[in-house]
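Format notes (please read before filing issues)

Several people have asked whether sequences and structure tokens are stored in separate files. They are not. Every record keeps both together, in the order shown below: the sequence lines, then the token lines. Line labels are part of the format and must not be stripped during preprocessing.
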Amino acid sequence: MEAIDQPETVIDRCETVYVFGTKLDDEKFDTDDCQVFDHNGYHWIVGEQFHANFKLPDNVYKWDQVHINSWMEWAKNEYNLSNLCTTELKKLTPNEYSWNIVLFCDNNSSNDEFRTHIRLLKTMHKVYIKKKDEEPIDIPLLLKYKYKVDANPELSRNVEIWQFLLYLLTSSKCQHVIEWVGNDGTFKIIKPNTVSWMWGLHKNNFKMTYSKMAAALRYHYGKGIIERANGKLHYKFVKDIKTMIGHSPMDIKNMFDQEPN
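Then the structure lines:
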């Protein structure tokens, strides 16, 4: 496991599962204050419906063999598994049995989502499921941006949201998540989940959403800085960009287009 130091909140990478949130004194995660993503950037959440239906203990270490059998039947249907079997496992104490079955399943499945589910059982000690129909976040970009924020925490705390968006628009590394669409200062947020999570790093808020970020943007409407534009996820800087930073939006975009891949 690789840990990235940060006061109170951390990002941990555990077998290509990323956990954003608070670590407790005993090195366990505060699951009520964590957000979890797989290596593709998809969001995983605690399976509340699973626990409501089966009424199993939240912590996998407290499962007995009956609990394990219930979970196995659920997993077979949830992940379309045809060969999930534990006949090779020797009956141990409840805690030992739970842990060994998790290891056994992890080593004997080619189903990527099921392996992620197992990794989260091992990491978070709870049942997590993949959140449906949600745009994945760009994990590599988010981690690189976090290093930049951590390098200058005093500056990052004082950044306003319009300054943050302007920075992204003038970074060639961010053009796949946000881009200029006009020389009049209009831009489009292409990947709102990724952009809002990057903004959350400034606010030390791992529960940031695009809706919350959009509310922060609305605070600046009518102040001669930024406003909504025509089109979904489109915004516009009111001030002339060339006057602000010395280059027009299309000058910037052309420079990015000429950079080697």
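For reference, the curators noted about this record: The chain has two domains: 2-130, 153-258. The beta strands are 2-4, 9-14, 17-23, 29-37, 43-46, 128-130, 178-180, 186-189, 226-228, 234-237.
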